[in-house]
Description:
The protein is built from 4 helices and 5 strands, in the order E-E-H-E-H-E-H-E-H.
Amino acid sequence: MHLNQINDALSVAAQITTADLTAIIDAGFRSIICNRPDGESADQPTYAEIEAAAKAAGLDMRYIPVQSGFVRDEDALAFGAALRDLPKPVLAYCRSGARSSMLWSLWAAHRDTGTVAAE
Length: 119
C-alpha cells in the first residue's frame, strides 16, 4: 500500500483491503474516507466489508462514493465536512487515489475562495 501525504491531516491511497488495516493503524491514521463506489471492479472489497473491519479496529469511517470522472461540487463539500468532523489523521482512498486528491483540491479551493471550482 502506497500512501501519498497531502498534509498532516490527510493522506490518499489506492484501493485498500481489510488486510491493510493493521498498516493503516500502525501509520497512525484514526479515520478513513472511501471515495470509491461499490461495484467498480469485480475484485474490489465492498465499503461494508472495510467499514466493519475498520470499526472493529477502532477507526472511524465515512463513505463518499464518487463516480470516476464526475466529481461534483457537492462531493467536494461532503469531503471537506468529513475532514472537518473525523479524527485526524485521515486516509482517503479510491481506485488510484486520484479522486480523493481531486476532492481535497476542490474542497481546498472552496475553502480558500468560497466557491468550488468546476472540473
